[in-house]
Amino acid sequence: MGDFNWHDQLWGGDHISPARQGEANALINYMGEHSLYSLLSRGTKTWQSGDIETTIDLILVSIELAEEIIRCDQTINSFRGLGQLQTDRLMTAVLEAVSKLTLKAKPSPYAKRWWMTDLTQPCRTYTYWRNQARLRRRAGCTVPELEQQAREVAKEYHDTIQKQKKAHWEDFLADDINIWQATKYLKPNVKSDGSTTKDKIEQAEELLTTFFPSLLERIEDEGTQPQREPIHMPDLTMEEIKRKVFEAKL
């Protein structure tokens, strides 16, 4: 039973387009070899789009089973729709479970997080021309045009990388969560005035001053400010607390 999407007068009636007649010869031969019988009456419409109606859904059984059939009609389409709906629900449940229960892999510390797929083709182009120029150079036959082409491609490729790194760094710093991670990439031994810290105490003081500058000596009264409605914080459940405890690093 299924949507064979083949047309033939054997099951589609006398309104089959001549252009499509004969496309189901392989299926007809298969039916003959295995003595299969079509349960739907000849000309039963199983597919409709606007004014077009055709017979493309077939139910094939052996002669023995055909004799035991009580009823069979075009309600097959209803069963197909129901089966698709159940499949969609099953896939939704499976994907939700996978997303919730599957541990997320940590990115490799050696991975280039700024890399994107748009850089793949420029990288290949750069590698190709670089290798071509290098082979000619090793063979003792330097080609100026080839060397120039390799230099231009290399400059374009590395300029693109620098732009991507800059954009990635700006997006990274835009997220407040990453501010402490960013401090690991900086040079804490350099003060704001350009001088160098002498020990870890001065490094800590410099970071403290940078992230938490001193308050003003005199703070003016701001006056009456508009008050917003307090935001209700839902009570934590034991399940949420348990989940966060297990997610915490040891």
Helix content: 40-55%
Helix/strand/pairing class, anyone? mainly alpha
Strand order of the largest sheet: 1-5
Helices and strands, in order, run as EHHEEEEEHHHHHHH
Task: Please tally the helical runs, counting DSSP H or I stretches of 4 or more residues.
Answer: 9
Low-confidence stretches are none
Number of strands: 6
The outline comes out as: flat
Question: What does this entry show, briefly?
Answer:
The chain has helices at 9-12, 25-33, 63-66, 76-101, 120-138, 144-174, 179-183, 200-211, 238-247, and strands at 2-3, 36-38, 47-49, 52-54, 57-58, 60-62. It is built from 9 helices and 6 strands.
Descriptive account of the structure:
The protein has 250 residues and is mostly helical. It is 48% helix and 6% strand. It is built from nine helices and six strands, in the order E-H-H-E-E-E-E-E-H-H-H-H-H-H-H. The chain has helices at 9-12, 25-33, 63-66, 76-101, 120-138, 144-174, 179-183, 200-211, 238-247, and strands at 2-3, 36-38, 47-49, 52-54, 57-58, 60-62. A hairpin with a 2-residue loop joins strand 3 (47-49) and strand 4. Helix 5 runs antiparallel to helix 6. It is flat. The mean pLDDT is 77. One of its GO terms (molecular function) is catalytic activity.
